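Structure ticket #2291
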Amino acid sequence: MTADTPVLLLAPRINETGLQLRTAAGRRGLRACVATSWQAPRELLGERVHVYGGPLFGDAVGRDLGLGLLEPSADWLTRLPPALTGRRVVSTTLAEARRLGRPAFVKPPADKLFAARVYPDGGALPGPDVLDGDTPVLVSEVVRFGVEYRLFVLDGEVRAGSRYAVDGELSVAPLETACVAAGQGAGEAGGDAGGVPAGEAAEVLAFTRDVLAATAAGAPLPSASVVDVGRTEKGRWAVVEANAAWASGGYAADPAAVLDVVLRSGGPAARLLTTDRPFLRELPEVVR
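Resolution: structure written out below.
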């Protein structure tokens, strides 16, 4: 490996996806290392570093390492047509959400500042003693998903995917995108192999293509991101949310393909595509 070999830096609390990415990076000839603290390793300053970890880790090391961390716009979901979201979604503040007098699904658009879930009313949300009222939140009508999938997207195409939940419970299975694209049948992709049946995988990919077409028309995403979709209890496909690939779990998605998306989404700011600059995460100046 040369001094210019890209480095994949993983957060100290490495998860299963991080372990898979470390292996995939090594097979590709990249350097991969796990941070020993929540600070940028001094030996990596000035190197070509890519990162995988949660938002707190990205914020902690981003400036020192010159990272350009891509994430979908906070109001991305609200820009999609209702035909794709399957529900009304609004972007507002926590202060406004606290006035809700009905059940609603409320979440912070990016960071996990509080639990994203259905709240019976606004009074159940974190109070002013916990979070400021100007904290941005997404508020949506309550929709229950029967099955949910995660798609890793690069340059407008799905590169890898995985089922991650059934009826709200963790249920992981690979989405064999390559098999579906090749037109193989259900007996060849999924089902007996422990993956998603090809028929359902084809539905997931077809719906996601519609979503990505809509992003090009008026709800843009960064060139590398994660899109979650699901089938509601009424049998309708709908978008769940979009997230930063450098901070998202891969579940059973192909690690090599996930790595492609992660490297683009959390790499050197100096190598950013011009079209990705509007999606840069604002990194804080860390005082030590």
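Closing remark: The radius of gyration is 19 Å.
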